[in-house]
Amino acid sequence: MLCCMPGVAFVPALLVSWSSAAFIISYAIAVLEGHVEPLVPYISDTGTKPPESGVFGFMINISALLGVITMYIRYLLIEKQNESSHFLRSSCNMFSLCIGLMGCIGMGIVATFQELAVPSVHDIGALVAFGSGVVYITLQSIISYKSCPQWNSYFVCHIRMAISAISCIAFIPMIVFASQISMTKIDWTPGEKDYTYHFMSAICEWTVAFGFIFFFLTFIRDFQKFSVRISTEIHED
């Protein structure tokens, strides 16, 4: 079905479906193995112990690669649109791409350095991934408004900005609550010390993560109208 999509729409579609599967599969394995409690663990908690750690690491690294490809195509698409409309400075488009690539690098760090094995490196990677991701989708929302009404509908822009706003709002308490946790563990149970901080932070983390997924879902329609040649040039179908 992905291969039948017009243009390059299969790229964000594959990113969304693969990333969703990565979260769900690793969560299901971790719960079935009894490694985490079913009620809102951290995303990283579901990929810390084997066998789910191997699945999580592999799939998240692929998601990071798909994210890089999607963001680069988005950059080329905006550059091509900007040639005729001149709605944005090219440096702004490049800055947005660089921020997005930083987020993908952060995802790779999260997937490679396990939470319990190297917690400091893992936490830095998570902070970079989520922080850069929030900035990237916010910048893309602003760029979408600038390209209206020729290249985007206001409805799509409103959806993107709403997702960005929710992700930004969730990102702040995610960091605040996580900073209050005094221990590094994955087997949390209700009633123990710092459980409330963990629970609230985990809810915010899942909100931000699926905010990214829903945001990239909005790229599919835009990508249907364009195709990329082997020379990396982009043209309208």
Automatic annotation (TrEMBL):
Q: Classify the protein's membrane topology as the record does.
A: Multi-pass membrane protein
User: Which stretches are transmembrane?
Assistant: 54-73, 94-112, 124-143, 155-177, 197-220
One GO CC annotation, please?
lysosome
Pfam families tied to this protein:
Frag1
InterPro entries named among the record's database cross-references: CWH43_N (IPR019402), DRAM/TMEM150_Autophagy_Mod (IPR050911)
> Which processes are annotated in GO (biological process)?
regulation of autophagy
- Entry keyword Membrane: yes
| Major location category of this protein | membrane
Q: Does the keyword Transmembrane apply?
A: yes
Source organism's superkingdom? Eukaryota
Domain spans labelled CWH43-like N-terminal: 8-225
> Where, subcellularly, is it found?
Endomembrane system
Which terms are listed as keywords in the entry?
Answer: Membrane, Transmembrane, Transmembrane helix
Family the UniProt entry places it in = Belongs to the DRAM/TMEM150 family.
Q: What name goes with this protein?
A: DRAM1 protein
**Organism of derivation:** Campylorhamphus procurvoides
Give the source lineage, highest ranks first: Eukaryota, Metazoa, Chordata, Craniata, Vertebrata
